Structures
1.
Amino acid sequence: MLSKKTKYGIKALTFLARQEDNTPVQIAEIAKSENISLKFLESILLLLRNSGFLGAKKGKGGGYYLIKEPKDINMAHVYRILEGPIALLPCASHNFYEKCDDCSDEVSCAVRKLMTEVRDNTLMILENNTLADIAF
């Protein structure tokens, strides 16, 4: 299942993408609008800022804002930043591959075969969607 961190991160990015002139938005406004715990949202937005999706302005009129166009924010990248691997098993992952301890033959493993197909289809959907696709 998708973690709340990832769900809320996507909701916050969508909220920011829908801002008219990309003006900074205070965390409290996003939290209230999207029904997200303020403390939890702070940590998510900090992660997104450190990953190059958001900028932050301090002081009066400050808050978070997108530093990339929504059309340039790929959802597979967002997912990997917030959630981690797209594959459900380490042996089926492109970026986080690890051999399973209990598997003697990956080539004939039915579980790996199925999870590789799940990964491929999930990856295709995430890679073919941008923040602009889901926000508008």
2.
Amino acid sequence: MNMDALKRQAAARALEEVRDGMKLGLGTGSTAKHFVDLLGEKVRAGLNVVGVPTSEATRIQAEQCGVPLTTLDEVDRLDLTVDGADEIDPALNLIKGGGGALLREKIVAAASDRMIVIADDSKWVDVLGRFPLPVELVPFGLAATRRAMAGAFAETGNSGQMVLRKGKDGHAFVTDGGHWIVDAQLGRISDAPRLAGLLTSIPGVAEHGLFIGLASLAVLAGSQGIRVIERR
């Protein structure tokens, strides 16, 4: 079975958690895209839900699929967010942001009662860090922010190259929030929760891709079928 089919299997399993009347966070990325497609089919068949998209790309897709949308200004809490991840560890801590939507993804996940992360099983790792850690930065004072980030890495026993993400045009990639992204190639992150706290305290950091304690359930699809892991 190819990777795309595995991602669709994970999305279909997460859809089983959706109930009529729910307010949903709609994730961004290749696996979340399958979830929005499948959700659209259910909506067209009569399911009554409303969604908050985590990116402009997801908003456009949801509208095309006929999923009714709202905003976090109009609803107090979301029942459930379904999103993908670039890495998942056994504590269900995540690295996210490969698609550049980490800030909105984290805002939506934090406003939800539950977060289900869906992925193919290649995203499961013993320790986070093989996937470069995205950090969303305010462009002003970039060099100072990068120096502070290097200090946070050193304080937690991490080190690695920091690369400014480029768009297809060769210029700095710009997020939906108007920020830039630096990808930190750490290899193996020692003490991800502590590093998350240190990065959050840096003034020029808009957000980072460490999602600590947000996912309650992971749905992983592999050649042996679906595996569901609850946060311990």
